[in-house]
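HOLO CASE FILE
Compound: magnesium ion
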Amino acid sequence: MVSERQLIDYIKGAAGKVPERVDGIGDDCAVFGCREGCKQLVSVDTLVEGVHFDLTWHGPRELGHKAAAVNISDIAAMGGKPCFALLSMALPARLDFAWLTAFTEGFTAELKEYGVVLVGGDTVASPEGLLLSVTIIGEAEEGRILYRSGAGVDDVIMVSGSLGDAALGLKLCREGRQASWPQLAAAHLTPRPEVALGRHLAAAGSGVTAMLDMSDGLATDLAHMCAASGLGARINADWLPISVSARQAALDLEIDVLDSALGGGEDYRLLFTCPAAVEEDLRREVKAVLKRQIFRIGKMIPGCGVLLCGRDGERDVSFQGYEHLTR
Ligand SMILES: [Mg+2]
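Model generated. Tokens follow.
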């Protein structure tokens, strides 16, 4: 087993150069200057072996990518620019240096892709499972931060991409069938944070009123937005963007694809609202600038909770996504 000092030295090397506004790594705290006119965004997320990932199918490199991506996504969710990360690991003795090297490569590669610099962390021993906790620090210009509480009555509800892919990917991994639909497995193993789109939606004049990233499934994440905005939502089952692969895999696995789209977590798509009057402009602009499609799934209504309209009527699906604390 490699010593803690050797591991930290290795990670430090892999993290690369720190920008000028950071006073190096190695002191008790990372010290960095703040930009004028900006607010700091800070978020922490923890991944636990056996709960969030399983090392039988989650390779070290992919896990490194994911640990960084899900945290970067929280900054993207508010329209921020991710800047710095801190990585804390509780490591079981069974993970050797080769595993740690591959993990670190994946983690730092993902950070670099989004211009994020690793500025600190902690390593401790774990008697059993692997635990990864990442703190991410970002920034956004004052007045250009999107909160989940900003949705208005009659605002349209939009999502940035297909729903349910990651949940189906996880099911395929569990059955050892990743190769059948590799893009679904990839949605679970290496999700992509939507930083550029988040920045675009939060830019001045976009008209977007509220935003978050979907980690626990649409039914739960939209219910959070409703609660924070003091409103309800009505979504249309036929409008949910569901990929062809998701439909095929769900059929094959004998799962209702709608359940995966509503309740399967980890899609890390952006969920946002805007007045109907700006929807078309927004759609056109996102397509022109980012070559991306956005999808209208419903609208905000007075009241509370999330109503799903389907062929067999309406039902309340509030908070029917992934539940972390069932006891
Ligand atoms: Mg989030």
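CASE NOTES: The pocket of magnesium ion is lined by residues 74, 77, 212-213, 215 (CB under 6 Å). The radius of gyration is 20 Å.
CLOSED: yes
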